[in-house]
Design brief:
The chain is an alpha+beta fold. The protein has a single domain, classed as Homing Intron 3 (I-Ppo) Encoded Endonuclease, Chain A (Alpha-Beta Complex). It has 6 helices and 6 strands, in the order ααααββββαββα. The strands form 3 sheets. A two-stranded antiparallel ribbon has the order 1-2. A two-stranded antiparallel ribbon has the order 3-4. The termini are far apart.
């Protein structure tokens, strides 16, 4: 008798979130496989965890965009990676990149924080807009 016939979960994700929740969400096994097929997962070398860059489409800010189905609104790839490894993102929280690479989906490089924390991190790292004219791209 298979695990499904037995009533047992057929995946780690189903075990964590429940079969009905997974089947109706972005966390189905097929969707997860499709998601990871678009991520360049690199091995950890000498305790240095490299970025796992998104290979699919990007939004205008350079963040990965993932659509599980045609006609669906795209979701940011790093947020999907967070959900796969850590569960739902707490309401009102942002998923922040510690590596400052908007294409990165490595869960070791992601953390949750408030919008204010995200903006403070951006300012501290010199990535915040400071006003004035925006230079044209060459």
């Amino acid at each position: 008798m298979s695990d499904e016939q037995n009533g047992r979960c057929s995946s780690v994700v189903e075990h964590r979130f429940g079969k009905a929740e997974v089947e109706s969400s972005i966390l189905s096994n097929g969707t997860i496989a499709l998601f990871w097929s678009k991520v360049d997962v690199r091995p950890d070398h000498f305790n240095h965890s490299p970025c796992w860059e998104w290979k699919g489409g990007l939004d205008r800010h350079g963040y990965g965009q993932f659509k599980a189905k045609s006609g669906e609104n795209p979701r940011r790839s790093h947020r999907i990676a967070w959900r796969i490894f850590n569960g739902d993102i707490p309401k009102g929280m942002s998923v922040m990149h510690q590596c400052d690479n908007p294409k990165c989906c490595n869960p070791a490089h992601l953390r949750v924080g408030t919008h204010a924390e995200n903006m403070a991190d951006k300012r501290a790292k010199g990535r915040a807009y400071r006003g004035g004219p925006v230079p044209k791209a060459a």
